[in-house]
Amino acid sequence: MGLTLSVIFEAQLRCCICLDVFTSPVSTPCGHNFCQACLQGYWDRCDFYRCPLCKAIFDEKPKLSINYSFSEITELFKESRQAISGKDQKFVEKVQEKQKAEETRAEGFINELEKEITELQRRNIELEQLWYTEDLIHFLQRLPMLYTSPCAQDWTEANVHADVGVGTVRCVTSGLKRAFRETENFSSTAVDVTLDPSTANPWLILSVDGKQVWDGDTQLHLPDYPKRFDSSVCVLAKESFTTGRHYWEVEVGEKIAWDIGVVRESINRKGIISANPEDGYWTMCLRHSNMYSCCGTCCFSLPLNRRPRKLGVYLDYEEGQISFYNVDAQSHMYTHHHTFTERLYPFFSPYTNDDGPNTAPLVIPPVRTAAQ
């Protein structure tokens, strides 16, 4: 209950434009709160003044003033979150170390069990063959030897911690099998993804070959197609999927903010979007250089040991999963699970250039074959 209240409280302190805790919060006449800079930037890109959340239209630009009481609350929340994060870091590391050690023990336990099972199966086959090929006396003479496996062990004395148990063993096994299966599929499911300029927000610049995208800091005069993003700096790929397994990579380099993932065809592309699975967005995002997050039933932080500079995205339509990988570290970061019912598109957002620090593009590298 306490965790649920904490999540709800934090959600009330987040700006729906930048998805971060409010900075210099201001209120519109309709009662909704936004970061002062976010709201001003939104209005600068619109032909008239309206609320980004409820779409209420104002006859003239509202006079905005910072809500200092609300601002103090958000600052206190930021300070408390930083203090809690610092205290919890050593505890998290200890838990991770213990978990890694127990997983190693579990893997060894599984390997020994598999050896034992293999040997028993071999002996069972030999028994069946003897039943049909040898006389009864010979069989009885060899019976004790057949039931004494050379690698048999007394598992009654095996010391396995209670917190590992069957569930952890199954989790480790299924996780290893899934990772192995997905890794095997990468080379055979790699797809050549190209950006679709007809979906690109007018503030975005696409390379001629459709393999790079960045914020150009200037709004282009482009036809307002129904499938074009008009407010959020996003773009989709030309390729789409309704079945099968598909894998592609995106170079993010040293960018300090981005959004990458998969979306369904029927998403809303006009106005401020809400990038969550309920609205057809299955993404991973970065903010402020080191804040990684994903959105499931709610948005949550994603702690990573290594900064990803190249992301791998793996879609299994029938299995209903979208996985993200750190390509250089060869590690799994997060997997969305959902039952897909319509066409899906690769999704990209280089985010705004942040007045300089985030000008680098998102890059779609050449497809890697099995030989590579």
TrEMBL record:
The keyword Calcium does not apply. SMART domains: PRY (SM00589), RING (SM00184), SPRY (SM00449). Residues 15-55 form the RING-type domain. The keyword ATP-binding does not apply. Residues 103-130 form a coiled coil. PROSITE patterns: B302_SPRY, ZF_RING_1, ZF_RING_2. Pfam families: PRY, SPRY, TRIM_CC, zf-RING_UBOX. Residues 1-18 form the signal peptide. PANTHER family: E3 UBIQUITIN-PROTEIN LIGASE TRIM. This is B30.2/SPRY domain-containing protein. It comes from Paramormyrops kingsleyae. The lineage of its organism: Eukaryota, Metazoa, Chordata, Craniata, Vertebrata.
